[in-house]
């Protein structure tokens, strides 16, 4: 094997180190899959999770988007002063998922979304008081079409 090259664990091609992402817990500090294979793997995994566990997948994606909107540098109109009280997306998702009432509503709405395959039925995170941020007691589940129409009415 040539210096500064590595064999991808998925496509088995010998590629330069620049074709791999940094990964601190490996001997050469390079990921085991090349960037192209890693991207393909992540797409396949998201597709599988969406099909196998749609409720948890949708909640994670919603928490990720809300967490980003709650960031200090997010500037989209309507979110300028919105903050997120969670330290990371995982804590955000777990706090909501561990709330039995929230989880049952989220799953029920996900079932409607999956059954009819209409974006308007997708479960979304709504801030009960739009002047407050993403905090555990200020979040509820609403279907997308209700959440959007509510935003326009405020």
Question: What distinguishing features does this structure have?
Answer:
two-stranded antiparallel sheet; single chain; 5 helices; 154 residues; 2 domains; 6 strands; alpha+beta; elongated
* Strand order, sheet with most strands: 1-2
Compute the separation of the termini in Å: 63 Å
Shape: elongated
Helix/strand class: alpha+beta
List how many beta strands DSSP finds: 6
**Residue windows where pLDDT falls under 50 for at least 5 positions:** none
Percent of sequence in beta strands: 15-25%
- Characterize the largest beta sheet: strand count, sense, and whether it forms a barrel: 2 strands, antiparallel
Mean residue pLDDT: 92
Count up the helices: 5
How many discrete structural domains?
2
**Which sequence of SSEs, written as H and E, runs from N to C?**
EEEEHHHHEEH
Helix coverage percent: 40-55%
Radius of gyration: 20 Å
What do you see in this structure?
The protein has 154 residues and is an alpha+beta fold. The protein folds into 2 domains: 11-42, no CATH class; 53-153, no CATH class. The chain is built from 5 helices and 6 strands, in the order ββββααααββα. It has helices at residues 35-52, 54-69, 89-97, 100-116, 144-153, and strands spanning 5-7, 14-16, 20-22, 30-34, 123-127, 139-143. The strands form 3 sheets. Strands 1-2 form a two-stranded antiparallel sheet. Strands 3-4 form a two-stranded antiparallel sheet. A two-stranded antiparallel sheet has the order 5-6. A hairpin with a 7-residue loop joins strand 3 (20-22) and strand 4. Helix 1 crosses helix 2 (54-69) and helix 2 (54-69) crosses helix 4 (100-116). The chain starts with a strand and ends with a helix. The mean pLDDT is 92.
